[in-house]
Structure formats: C-alpha cells, structure tokens
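Lab notebook, bench 4. Still working through the backlog of constructs that have no structural model yet. Next entry is a single chain of 100 residues. Request: give me the structure tokens for it.
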Amino acid sequence: GDAFKILGGPSAGSAFRNQEIFSNPVAGLVLGVLATVLVQSSSTSTSIIITMSAAGLMEVKNAVPMIMGANIGTSVTKTIVSLGHMGDKNEYRRAFAGAT
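Model written out:
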C-alpha cells in the first residue's frame, strides 16, 4: 500500500524524470519491448508511454524509441505464441508465418 502511495504521489515525476535510462534510445527500445512482452499488449504499453510523456515525466524524443520497442514487442509476443504449435510441423509453419 505505501509503495503505491509513494510512486503515485508528487515524487513520481521526479523519480521518472531524473532517470538516465530514458535518455538512452537503445535502453528505451529494450524497455518498450520488455513492457509489451510483460503486459502482452502494445496498446497498453503505448498508452502508458504516451501518458507519461503528456504528463511531463519524459520528453517526446525519449518516448519514440519506447513506442518503437512496443511495436517490436508485439512481434516477439506473437513469435512466442507460435512456439506453442511446434508439435505439428505444418501448423507451426503457418503460426510462425502469421507471427512475422
């Protein structure tokens, strides 16, 4: 309970704004991929990134690689799902083709 109050309070802006990871585009890309794979929804992770940018927690130039990472994360998620069809060669081939 207390952790959410701290992260959701006025200190949240400075906690995110002062992080150097947001200024590194490669780290932002990886962060976008990871967030999308974890929530399995690029729409959700993109919405969170856009909201953080609109609230001034990060600059737009730092949000762009994260959104690109969210789009890549969608492909990663689809590829992981296609691996579930490895039992049947033809079914796997179709699932993997649909994922990429």
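Notes after review: The chain has a mean pLDDT of 82. Helices lie at 2-8, 11-17, 25-39, 42-54, 60-82, 89-99. Flag for follow-up if needed.
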